Each structure stands twice: as C-alpha cells, then as structure tokens.
Amino acid sequence: GDKWTYSGPDGEHHWPNHYPYCGAAFQSPIDIKSELLRFDPTLRPIEIQNYNLSVNEQLTLGNNGHSVQISLPSKMHISSLAHRYTAAQLHFHWGSSSRLAGSEHMVNSKQCAAEMHVVHFNSDKYPNMSSAVDKSDGLAVLGVLIEIGEFNPAFEHFLKFINGIKYRDQKVQVPGFNIRALLPARLDEYYRYDGSLTTPPCYPSVLWTVFRNHVTISRKQFMTLATSIYSTHAQESVPVSLNGNYRKPQLADSRVVLVSFKE
Ligand SMILES: NS(=O)(=O)c1c(F)c(F)c(S(=O)(=O)CCO)c(N[C@H]2CCc3ccccc32)c1F
Ligand SMILES: [Zn+2]
C-alpha cells in the first residue's frame, strides 16, 4: 500500500526503503540550472489535441491522499512527440499557508508557489497507464510552474468544488472545461529532460516537459488549494492537512536539460 508521505518517518528520505527506484538514478524533480542547459533547435512546440472539454463532459476531481487530481478523458493527447501520449490525469504540488513555495522543479534554485503536472502515457505502445508507468518510454508529463499573482479564472473550474474532496479518497464529478486554459500561453518554450515519477514508486519513465513561462493564481486561490485538503480519511480521528506535497530536487548527475528557446 502507499504509506509514503512528504515528512516524518515515511518521508522522502525513507522512500527507497520500500521503493528502490526512489534511490536510483534519473530522478525528478531537478533544479534546472543554467549550466545544465543546451539549446536544441529540433524541439518543436508542444501540440495538444482535445484539451477543450465541453461542460457536458464530467471529470472526476479527487483527493488521493497525496494530491488533488483530475482524471482526464483519453481523447486528450499530445501529438507532437515521437509517439502519441494520451492524457491520464492532472494533479498539483503546493506549499502551505506559512510557506508559499511548493513547486517541485526549480529554475536556478528559485522555487515557485506550486506546480501542475498533466500526466500522459505512450498509447502507441501501451494499452493503459499501469502498463506504461514503469517503461522507459512510458510517460510524458507536462509541468507548469505556478506563481501567486493575478486571479486565474481557469482554476475556478475545479477550486470551487474542492470542499467536496477535503478527505482522502473523496471524489466529485465536475463539468468539463478547457484544460488548455490551465497551461501557459506559449507551448513552444520549455525545458526537456529524462526523469522519473516524483512520487513512489519513482520509476524513471518520464519524458519531462517543464514550460518556461509560469501561470499565476491569486493568493486566495493558493490558500484555497493549500488549506482545504487533508491526507487523512473523513472518519480518521486526527485530520492531517495535506500541504508541502513536493519532493526536493534530485541530483542531475550528468543529465543535460534541453531547451527549446535561445535567450
Ligand atoms: N509528479 S508525478 O507526475 O510523477 C505524479 C505524482 F506526483 C502523483 F502524486 C501521482 S498520483 O497518482 O496523484 C499519487 C501517487 O501516484 C502521479 N500519478 C501517476 C503515477 C502512477 C499512476 C498510475 C495511474 C495514473 C496516474 C499515475 C504522478 F505521476
Ligand atoms: Zn506531480
């Protein structure tokens, strides 16, 4: 079972005890430092299909005890990579009401307030997420850095339902909305490297795309995300707030981070 947490005796330094890959190479996230970067002119703009979902489509918004996740329909996919990568779910990592920094990836050691990940699997080669999750060409995750600033109406499509998933394993259906609106304007500027799941079992199976440009949410929206969720079930006597659900940056080793932009 997934007993792992982000702090305490089951925190990230202990993950390798039960999940050996967490202590191996090619781990994510990383601190994306200038000295690791190499411009790659072959990196094409990310092209996504069917992200603009109709309100008549129902999405499952859930609290899985580690994050807030939205399950995504399989018509959504990335079409600009070597294989078709079909969307599975998106989820978030955030700080806390007392520590506004909670992104997983950092850029030159700057940690943002939060980070969104849209998880896709290689549907050319694998039938579903479960069979793709431990394959070296199995997954592609789009990472979006989130800063506190302007109010973001796109986030309201799920934040307004968050009180329905306060406790672990609670789920609610929410109307579909344009998932593209959660991404930054420019999909042509990004960092690209080979890495892993940032949670156990930490399989080194992820082609990471972290967009250069962040999106913003308001302080109030951030506090809603950071203070509404518990990692414990409703019936548990002692509720434990879910915040600070980000893994620390891992060793880059000899990895190069490719960039699609010059300046
Ligand atoms: N940062 S990340 O992108 O590496 C990443 C997470 F950080 C994260 F929390 C989750 S999860 O499913 O919400 C909870 C634990 O897996 C997943 N979920 C993935 C991993 C396994 C799996 C299986 C089916 C659907 C989604 C996922 C994940 F890929
Ligand atoms: Zn994630």
Short descriptors:
three-stranded mixed beta sheet; 4 helices; binds zinc ion; 263 residues; 16 strands; binds ligand 5EF; 29% strand; single chain; 13-stranded mixed beta sheet; mainly beta
Q: What do you see in this structure?
A:
With 263 residues, the protein is mainly beta. Helices cover 9% and strands 29% of the residues. The protein is built from four helices and 16 strands. The chain has helices at 15-18, 129-132, 153-159, 219-227; strands at 31-32, 37-39, 48-49, 58-63, 68-71, 77-78, 85-94, 106-107, 110-111, 114-122, 139-148, 171-175, 190-195, 206-211, 215-217, 257-259. The strands form two sheets. Strands 2, 3, 4, 5, 6, 7, 10, 11, 12, 13, 14, 15 and 16 form a 13-stranded mixed sheet that branches. The chain has a three-stranded mixed sheet with strand order 1-8-9, with no helix packed on it. A hairpin with a 6-residue loop joins strand 6 (77-78) and strand 7. The longest helix is centred in the C-terminal third of the chain and has 9 residues, at 219-227. The N and C termini lie far apart (46 Å). 41% of the residues are buried. The site of the ligand NS(=O)(=O)c1c(F)c(F)c(S(=O)(=O)CCO)c(N[C@H]2CCc3ccccc32)c1F has 15 residues, from strand 7 and strand 10.
